[in-house]
UniProtKB/TrEMBL annotation:
This is Glyoxalase-like protein. Gene3D superfamilies: 2,3-Dihydroxybiphenyl 1,2-Dioxygenase, domain 1 (3.10.180.10). It comes from Aliiruegeria haliotis. It comes from the Bacteria. Residues 10-81 form the Glyoxalase-like domain.
């Protein structure tokens, strides 16, 4: 894949989990305050989010509701049903993915206004890779003025230091996520390890979320 020069600005990190109870337990064990939750009509999902100043940390699950054809086309419903990678990464601002290598495909998410689409990396149609997309709007949590994110994790925590993704076979995922700042991919027991920083830049919290065993797509 060809990439634009420079690192992409990270916006969301999400992890697909079993249900709301598991999601809230994970946030609680990580010591994170849930800032908001949303329902995604037509996508068949709900989420909860913990907001830093710079990044949204999201846990997402299937709520069993109707899934639109647009969602099926980007096979997000398959991920929510336990197939392939449960990890999602989004950028804001300039795309890190060059159109010369397939670039992105439009996802007309049913919960967005008519005609509005989310660019999804075409490589994400491979379920073995994370779901990579551009966040609509792309406003950092600290700059939001709609009250959605509340006090974020302030005053204890401010920004993401890094997120380390450990997987059994890191090569292709490492190459795919190379454009993203603060994301590291290494070999190991499947998990996501987070390092969160205090306002003064020192490490304020470190925690890890295990990735549940997933059914891998044929040929992966």
């Amino acid at each position: 894949m060809h990439y634009n020069l420079g690192k992409a600005e990270l916006d969301h990190i999400f992890l697909i989990v079993r249900d709301e109870a598991q999601a809230r337990s994970m946030m609680d064990q990580a010591g994170l305050r849930v800032n908001y939750s949303r329902v995604h009509p037509g996508q068949g999902t709900r989420n909860i989010c913990a907001c830093l100043d710079d990044v949204f940390i999201e846990l997402l699950w299937s709520d069993g509701s109707e899934v639109s054809q647009a969602t099926r086309q980007v096979i997000l419903n398959d991920r929510c049903n336990g197939l392939g990678s449960p990890v999602g990464i989004s950028w804001r601002g300039k795309s890190p993915i060059d159109a010369s290598d397939g670039g992105t495909v439009p996802y007309f998410a049913p919960f967005l206004p008519a005609g509005v689409s989310i660019p999804v990396a075409s490589k994400s149609l491979d379920l073995a890779l994370p779901f990579v997309f551009q966040t609509p709007g792309g406003t950092p949590p600290i700059e939001r003025t709609d009250g959605l994110v509340g006090d974020r994790q302030s005053p204890e925590l401010a920004t993401l230091g890094k997120c380390k993704l450990l997987v059994r076979d890191p090569k292709h995922i490492r190459d795919f996520l190379a454009p993203f700042e603060k994301i590291e991919v290494q070999e190991g027991a499947p998990s996501m390890q987070f390092e969160l920083l205090r306002p003064d830049g020192s490490i304020g919290r470190v925690f890890s979320w295990a990735l549940s065993e997933r059914v891998q797509p044929s040929g992966a």
